[in-house]
Amino acid sequence: MRLECVVNGEPRDVAGVRESESLLQVLRERMKLPGAKNACEQGECGSCSVFLDGKLVCSCLVLAGQAEGAEIVTIEGLADGDALSPLQEAFIETGAVQCGFCTPGFILAAHDLLQRQPSPSDAEIREALAGNLCRCTGYAKIIEAVRVAADRMTT
Amino acid sequence: MELIQPISWEDALAAKAAYPDARAIRGGTDLMIELGAGDRLPATILDLGRVAKLAEWSLDDGHVVLGAGVTFTELIDELSCELPALAMAARTVGSPQIRNRGTVGGNLGTASPAGDAHPPLLATDAQVKLASARGARWIGIGELFAGPKRTTLEPDELIECVRMPRASGSQQFSKIGTRNAMVISVCSFALAIDPSRRRVGTGIGSAGPVPLVAEEAGRFLEGVLTEADAWESGAPLGESAAARFGELVSAAARPIDDVRGTADYRRHALAVLARRALGWARGARDELIG
Amino acid sequence: MASANVLAGDQLTRTREGIGERTLRPDGTLKVSGEFAYSSDLWAEDMLWGATCRSPHPSARIRSIDTSAARAVPGVVAVLTHEDVPGRKTYGLEEPDQPVLAWDLVRYQGEPVAIVAADHPATAREAARRIVVDYEVLEPLVDPDEALDASARALHPAGNVVRHLSIRHGSVEEHAGTADVVVRGEYEIGMQDQAMLGPESGLAVPDGDGGVHLYIATQWLHQDLNQVAASLGLEQDMVRLTQAGIGGAFGGREDLSMQIHACLLALHTDRAVKMSYSREESFFGHVHRHPARMRYEHGATTDGRLVYVKARLVLDGGAYASTSRSVCLVSGTFAVGPYECPNAEIDAYAVYTNNPPCGAMRGFGAVQVCFGYEAQMDKLAAAVGLDPLEIRRRNAMRTGGLMPTGQPVVGPAPVEEVLRHLQETPMPEQLPGDGERLDQRELPGGVANVTRGEGLRRGVGYAVSIKNIGFCEGYDDYSTARVRLWASHGEPIAEVHTAACEVGQGLVTIHAQIARTELGVRRALVRPADTTVGNAGSSSASRQTVITGGAVKAACEAVRERVLELARERLDGDVEADDLILEDCYVASRSRGPLMPLADLLGEQVIVEEREWRPRPTLPLDENGQGDVHAMIAFAAHRAVVDVDVELGLVRVVELTAVQDVGKALNPLAVEGQIEGGTAQGMGLALMEEIRVQGGRILNPSFTDYLIPTIVDMPPVRVEILELAQPDSPYGVNGVGEPPMISSGPAVMAALRAATGRELAHVPARPEHLAGLSGELSWR
After folding, report:
1. Long-range CB contacts (< 8 A, 24+ apart) of A109-116?
2. Rounded to an integer, what distance in angstroms lies between the CA atom of residue B206 and that of residue B253?
3. Chain B residues with CB inside 8 Å of A41's CB?
């Protein structure tokens, strides 16, 4: 089948998609946007997070055809040209990135949180990022990164 | 595999009639896992994601009518006052990403014994509207579940909406998990005290082949409330009544041992949860932050 | 090939940070932008996808394999079995006992039997499902104690005992009578999974001349090369490995997974082949942490001083040897912990069963015993009426103290110091009292609304870890580094090339920091690791910063010598030889300051030096288990504060404190990250992480039921870093990665015991154990 949607602001038109493929598979394998990651493909890790029509979702749980006509934002679309977003900067600076496999998902989930709540408490940060697993950092520096970015974005 | 994407509810029902084996999808949070990255495909998938009316909810004569496509996030954001137990349950479903996509209708259609929405829906005596091209019928929520991951839907039927009273009294939902977020329930319990109807509703999750109602526990508590003339007062009921209520809830469970917990633990935990939930419903420790 | 651009892109660092400074990752920008090329992101034009047909049975005899239906699936290009393995048909890190593709017998559920290449991943998997294997199902041998029994069916020709390590230190027999107090305990550790987020994956590309180039997420390129080339039947120079981006490792990438399979398919089809496991397949595709059954007896005087320790340890190695021999060594040699004990009798066994194969995971044998010896120390403390910190202090290992192997700890042994730090760390806030407003997110269960203070008890627990850094037992442990220095556009540039794998721990940063420090440059590039440079050894045993760091430093020093020699020639004897240094891109005199820009001195010259570096040599054990088997020793300690709902058996960890001696924190930011991350994995093992195996079958091969801590579960971690210089180590550095994983879990277990008053013999402690509802040990 054919899939038409807008990804990171650009209209995309992909032919030859199998009906059974997930949005994650299409992004990674057919659109060459591997920033959404494939850690579990069961909705249990958040590494495949993207925005689908403004909502944070696990792209592994979206059937490709469900994204027809949708607006999708992936981690590749978060920076403004070469300028990283405050969250991306903060993740690097605070040491919130180790292997980095979870990082795109965390940054998008944190972005979603800061859009709703610009000055979150630690408890709010934890609840909002509970769907993203990290195996390297023990999360401390991820929380710090979100605090740092929130501070910068509100001042 | 064929993908059908109707826009109208009528077209959706017509499609289900034409393809009774079609699997319905909306948020995809259950079905996509079942498909196993495309390794276990049905012949047809019916995508209900474009049927706008499924995402609506409304108030009607003291009742809430909840479209099958209302997401858990919407429940938390919009219906915490009207449906407190269901909203509390919604907050424990998966993760923010899952709650943004997962729906009440999907939770019912999957009919997992661990479905988090089931106990509150049972406790509030929800009715489910099952529709087909032949017409629609309402059934009690308890009649929907036929077994683990099996429902009583006819092959041509789809879940349209659920309807339940707005909360008039206290409601609670509690869920046991082996970690403190993003976890499938080991067991769960919902309590709805409805003074306006003199009714105590209960629901038990993950402790039987289907979600269960603790009938005797509910009747016991109704009796206690009536006898003490305490339906309206909200006064505490005493520890022995709470303990007895817990025991009766526990006795209604039919749990098994599995990888998530033992049957003994589930029975034990349900007694504790029910006892505590009753205390909170009667005003104990009800000042919460967050 | 499109992926090559990203892979070959030099990782450029522009910061001026040298060793000891908080230095940011050079790959950070790529990683936060989604552009970092992990092994599962690779692709090549016209590539095929590989899939694996695995045994559904833990034990069976293969009668026949029929691949005809699989071959008939449109899009399938190749289906291979053991008959298609041209070289050695087995592989293994310590013993090549594991079939590349099974023939005759399968010994665990998930063992690879055949492989497929097709034009779409779903097609490849579909074909793999259509391979018909006729199995004669056998009764699996799944109990490690039964496997030890001489009458048990032998799973391998040499029997079921992979290793029996016997340590006899002092004389327990002679001195047991002098112990005033004896405490005994039995403990069981569940099978932990590394749960690295990046799935096993890689891309094999035929080179057109009969060889193959494998882009792979691995911990040890050269050991992969040895095994892959042997099974392909190729000379090593026909096989080239380049490290692809790695999504975590933790030991799970030390053994091979899809390496040989992808290369076989690529060579057979003459096309690039990608393989990438699903999460479920990953649970079957790598080794796990050894489950352990441990029986301990500690004897002590009334003032709490250890008289003797007896320990019997049984480690379930599963179906194949992997690194069981070494894990067994580490468990046995550290069975007493960071304590001096004059008499010890330790028997450690690693056995074959039909359970999933076990091997390397962070902490490598030292994790299991720490749960045992620390539980024993707490029992002893209770028995003699001392507090947990005091009993540890009284028995603390000191520099020069003897381990049960008779080996002295020659470097720092700051056990008393780490304990003092824990004691001085303030306690977190108390439990909310009755009537106080509650935030359920700070209670067990969180928003699942299970307690509002009911049943809550607070517990505090302590644990100390001891672990070797680097390989042991006489293994020739070394690393190789090639350093290149040249000038471009007036700026000197250093480039470091090693085969050491960056798995997330931050090795790339360390390489560049050392080069900047030693060569006085601002720009230091780190080439992607591959096999065109010498062996670096494994990214395991907490060894890379020490050993590859040592090699990088040595190579930099050699480059510097040559630069300074050039400078002396240029300066025509105008300076004292030892007065010259390289600093801030200049050749400088210590006394007179900058003399000439380094770039000017270099001109068009490229200076290249390659060096190997070795830590202190180690020796094998003698027949009594005595000998200097370990190179370096590291220590860490934790305090855990937990709130337990003792009625429901649910837990919220309130706070964890970690104190660790790292020798020298080359990059404090990365050191903190290692300590926080290791602490989380240890906590996970205590609370929730266990691969449940029944009859040889994994019950929970998914992140739905194999739970690892979320951000909600992980409390704040206080980190205290000590820097006591290691002798004979570059900059005095010690290994960092493993120690925090080791003591974190035992501290949590101690806190859970303190809160519940229960024995809690099984790790992880499940809710039903904490609530006192079920027998905990599987063998009772």
Report:
1. A109/A46, A109/A49, A109/A56, A109/B96, A109/B97, A110/A145, A110/A146, A110/A149, A111/A78, A111/A85, A111/A87, A112/A51, A112/A56, A112/B96, A113/A146, A114/A87, A114/A146, A114/A149, A114/A150, A114/A153
2. 9
3. 37
Structure tokens at C118: 């097709």
List the domains of chain A with CATH numbers.
3-77 (3.10.20.30), 86-154 (1.10.150.120)
Pair C763, C189: CB distance under 8 Å: yes
Q: How far apart are CA B31 and CA B36, in angstroms?
A: 9
Q: Are C189 and C764 in contact (CB under 8 A)?
A: no
Domains of chain C: 48-139+199-246+253-285 (3.90.1170.50), 292-472+620-770 (3.30.365.10), 479-613 (3.30.365.10)
Q: In the sheet where C607-613 sits, what is the strand order?
A: C11-13, C523-526, C491-497, C479-488, C607-613
The single-letter code of the amino acid at C396 is A
Whether residue B1 lies within 8 A of chain A, CB to CB, comes out as yes
Domains held by chain B: number? 1
pLDDT digits (tens, 9 = 90+) for B28-71: 999 999 988 667 789 999 999 999 999 999 998 899 999 999 99
**Chain-wide mean pLDDT for chain B?**
96
Please give, rounded to a whole number of angstroms, the shortest distance from the CA of A104 to a CA of chain B: 14
Within a domain: B215:
yes
Euclidean distance between the first and the last CA atom of chain A, given in angstroms as a whole number: 47
Burial level of B57, CB count in 10 A (0-12/13-18/19+)? Answer: buried
Strand B150-151 and strand B145-147: the pairing is antiparallel
Q: Indicate whether this complex's ipTM tops 0.90.
A: yes
> With pLDDT > 70 as the criterion, what percentage of chain C qualifies?
97
Please say whether the beta carbons of C333 and C368 come within 8 A.
Answer: no
Q: Considering the domain boundaries, does residue B198 fall inside one? A: yes
Closest residue to C714, CB basis, from A100, A103, A139:
A139
Please report the residues numbered 34 through 63 in chain B whose beta carbons come closer than 8 angstroms to any beta carbon of chain A: 35, 37-38, 41, 45, 47, 49
The answer to whether residues C214 and C203 touch, using CB atoms and an 8 Å cutoff, is: yes
The tens digit of pLDDT for each residue in C250-292 reads 999 999 999 999 999 999 999 999 999 999 999 999 999 999 9
- For residue B1, tell me if it sits in a domain: no
Q: Is C635 helix (H, G, I), strand (E, B) or coil?
A: strand
Do C701 and C280 form a contact (C-beta atoms < 8 A)? yes
Q: Are C742 and C749 in contact (CB under 8 A)?
A: no
CA-to-CA separations, C558 to B35, C83, C497, C645, in angstroms, rounded: 58, 49, 15, 61
C574 alpha carbon, distance to own chain's centre = 52
Given an 8 Å threshold on Cβ–Cβ distance, is C449 in contact with B38?
no
Count Cα atoms within 13 angstroms, Cβ side, for A4. 2
What is the spatial distance between Cα C437 and Cα C439, in angstroms, rounded to a whole number? 7
Q: What is the CATH number of the domain that holds B248?
A: 3.30.390.50
In terms of phi and psi (left: phi > 0; alpha: psi -120 to 50; beta: otherwise), the region of B28 is: left
Which range of residues forms the domain containing residue B271?
Answer: 171-281
Residues on chain C touching B287 (C-beta within 8 angstroms): 437-438
Mutate to test the interface with C, among A98, A122, A148 (most CBs of C within 10 A): A98
Residue B116 falls inside a structural domain: no
Q: What is the pLDDT of residues B153-179, one digit of tens each?
A: 999 999 999 999 999 999 999 999 999
